[in-house]
Amino acid sequence: MNSADCSFDVQDGYNGDWVGFSGSQHPYTGHHGTYVSICTINTGGFDGVSGYLHVSLGCVLGWPSANSTYYFHWALCTAYDNRDSYVGTTGDVGDAYQIASGTSSFSGLTASVTPHYLDIGSPYIKPYTTYYLILWANSDDGNNCMQVWTPSNHSGTLYYYPPTRLYVSSGAHSSITVNRTSSPYEGAGTGYLGGGTALYYGDVLQVTFGVEAGYSFTTQTVNGSTFSNGGSATVTDGDMSVVSAAVVNSYTLSISQSHAAAAVNRTSSPNGGGATGTLASGAVLYYGDVLAVSFAADVGYAITAHTVNGSAFTSGSSTTIASNIAVVVSAAVAIFLLTLDNQSADSSGSSAIYEKYSTGYYQESACTNQMTASANPITKPARSGYVFGGYFTAAGGSGEQILSAEGYLLDGVDAALFVSAVALYAYWIRAAIFRIKVAGGWKTHKHAWIKVNGVWKKVVRIYVKADNAWRQSI
Q: Which residues face 157 on adjacent strands?
């Protein structure tokens, strides 16, 4: 802020006459009289474009009262019509030429020339221009009290503001837009302002901050103080500095898993610099991170749901981070299909049974009819010339036997034996061939007959005792 002297030409109040009615109160002020003075102010040349006035005024009071409060009114105008029209107002004269107005109050004054100081605000003051400072007074006391402005002890100083500068500093991933929406300086213009642009006292600037997707402001200031995005600032007597800075957004990973596991691997972190590799629930993520997500069920379980942020997600696929991430995987007890390979049977019988992991074996996929050694057998297959010997885990009666020759589940079969769909193989035993001699020679018969309690019975199987256990003979 700089200063310069002003030229003052002060006229006494209305050629020495006070405005009012002799012996009666003034119709506007309610008091006996007041003088209207006009100071003609001539500004010289200066390098600013706006400023304010500090004026020292002298006055003489007629019949002052120490208990009264005196009000000195002023209006700064570029011209005036009739100075008498200002009397009786409180500073807001409504004149088309007025650019500023105000009131100052004083008390305990004496009947002498007393300087009083008025600051005429911050109107737009032009160099080499004539202004008119119109002055009048009244008091709150209705007694005989006349206020008289005198031409003595008047002086003034014009304070003005040279142009200042706009400084803009936008950090990476952020931006700043400054628009001048109004200016008291006629040559300033409005619109977008770049860094280094001249500013003028009283300019109104709108400041807008921008930030890239995935980033948030850490700094958003005007002259060091946090500033609302899109807000307006008025230029005063210094440079204006607008600063912004941003940081990449961070997010959180959550993993929920039941009888299954979700493997989350960060494969890249271009913005946040996060470490790559396997991440645990609660890990910090950054905007733009790339995560590969895969799912696996626990042994004996099958995945029923696998989602990322509530949407089904393909195991082994990747996702790019722009928010918090919730990975959910759950599994239920698996049901495995055990196909019954009847090994060239003539009549196929049942085609499959089902293992519900760690629960049991069933005739159907709904797992309602549980098989035991005495309940819910399969329909056995049949093959000409052979006797059915049950179902085994491998062909030819090798491996572990699962179903008996009668089609029942063998006792002791582990309910968690299978962890995937498999085939069971029928075991066929060639039927015994008997030769008997009858009239005409030896004859081959498929079955032998024995007489039991006087009744002939067909022999279906022959058992022999070996190792203290009865075993079916071929």
A: 5, 54
